[in-house]
Write a structure and sequence with these properties.
Number of strands: 5
Radius of gyration: 15 Å
CATH superfamily: Alpha/Beta hydrolase fold, catalytic domain
Largest sheet: 5 strands, parallel
Order of helices and strands: EHEHEHHEEH
Number of domains: 1
Strand content: 15-25%
Structural class: alpha/beta
Length: about 190
């Protein structure tokens, strides 16, 4: 097996891309969003990057899956903030991973779920951008925590039943159209 993206950058990269994949999504960072999005970000961002896969079940049959994801993502962000004091983060969540990301950032709709771990407020300035794809919380009016609203892009494909209440399940796996825009949004914040 080839090494994952975390092996591509040694030490403290300027930006660490932290990705929570979707439910049962294959691939290292996630075949539908994480892996291809990270390739686009590496190509388009004017700084060195590293990537981190959030280790969590990503399984709807595991009741603690989302809270496990928030614990893993928050733990990574806290540890890297201490080890790499100048590093900033791009948080990416796809489908269930978007709910994990909302939880880490303290979004009100996500905090209704039990066992959520949130990023300490003193680290909020380290989050450069938040990129959400196929976000289920959109269906219940869930929005980014106000601290992160101006840094958050929430992409939802037309017809996606998970985020738009649509009737085209295949639309949930088609987010390539958003990757260049996401990279542009991040570049504008660098």
């Amino acid at each position: 097996m080839s090494p994952g993206p975390t092996a591509w950058a040694q030490g403290c990269a300027a930006v660490d891309v932290v990705i929570a994949r979707g439910t049962t999504e294959p691939g290292y960072l996630g075949a539908a969003v994480g892996d291809p999005l990270y390739a686009v970000l590496r190509e388009h961002l004017a700084v060195d990057t590293s990537a981190h896969r959030v280790e969590y079940p990503a399984d709807l049959l595991v009741p603690s899956s989302v809270s496990d994801g928030t614990r893993a993502m928050t733990g990574h962000l806290v540890a890297l903030s201490a080890a790499c004091p100048d590093q900033r983060f791009i948080l990416v969540g796809y489908s269930q991973g978007a709910v994990v990301t909302h939880g880490v950032l303290g979004s009100p709709a996500a905090l209704a779920l039990p066992g959520m771990w949130t990023l300490p407020p003193e680290l909020s300035h380290r989050v450069l951008a938040v990129l959400l794809f196929g976000d289920p919380l959109r269906l219940v009016g869930g929005t980014a925590h106000p601290w992160y609203a101006d840094r958050t892009q929430n992409y939802c494909a037309a017809g996606d039943p998970v985020c738009a209440g649509g009737i085209f399940p295949a639309a949930h796996g088609t987010y390539e159209w958003a990757f260049a825009d996401a990279a542009g949004q991040v570049n504008a914040r660098l």
